[in-house]
């Protein structure tokens, strides 16, 4: 009987050690990281993870959120940056690019001495801040507070 117990004990030790070895190999296998740093560049080379997006107006990567922030008109009290639109002007001030929350952007133009920039059914009005209207309905508004423009160089206002 003692010999039988010894045989069972030795057999179970060998079997359990073999199972643990296989499990340890699986646990010790290195985890491969499929994330590549800088792999989130868009077709224009703008690094989205750093907040850059392509500006059709300025023809460079910019941080749109450094422009004029326009809050949604449906709830003017919200300042959630993911729901806001942003406005960047060109140097002459006769054109502006509007960046909407859904990553869509378009350029509005000003003609003559008007106080409004327009494109299709959008109209940007510069009066006591800025208002963006679509088909005559107010969709975004802001106080006109301008952040510093940041471009590819990451230097405000293009300073070296």
Description:
- It is a single chain.
- The chain has 160 residues and is of the alpha+beta class.
- 17% of the residues lie in helices and 29% in strands.
- It has one helix spanning 2-28; strands spanning 53-55, 60-62, 68-72, 85-89, 95-99, 105-110, 116-119, 122-126, 130-134, 137-142.
- It has an eight-stranded antiparallel β-barrel.
- The longest helix has 27 residues, at 2-28.
- 17% of the residues are buried.
Features:
single chain; 160 residues; alpha+beta; two-stranded antiparallel ribbon; 1 helix; 10 strands; 29% strand; rod-shaped
Q: What would you say about this model in short?
A:
The chain is α+β, with helices and mostly antiparallel strands. The protein has one helix at 2-28, and strands spanning 53-55, 60-62, 68-72, 85-89, 95-99, 105-110, 116-119, 122-126, 130-134, 137-142.
Annotate the secondary structure layout.
Layout: H1 2-28, E1 53-55, E2 60-62, E3 68-72, E4 85-89, E5 95-99, E6 105-110, E7 116-119, E8 122-126, E9 130-134, E10 137-142
Antiparallel strand pairs: 1-2, 3-4, 3-10, 4-5, 5-6, 6-7, 7-8, 8-9, 9-10
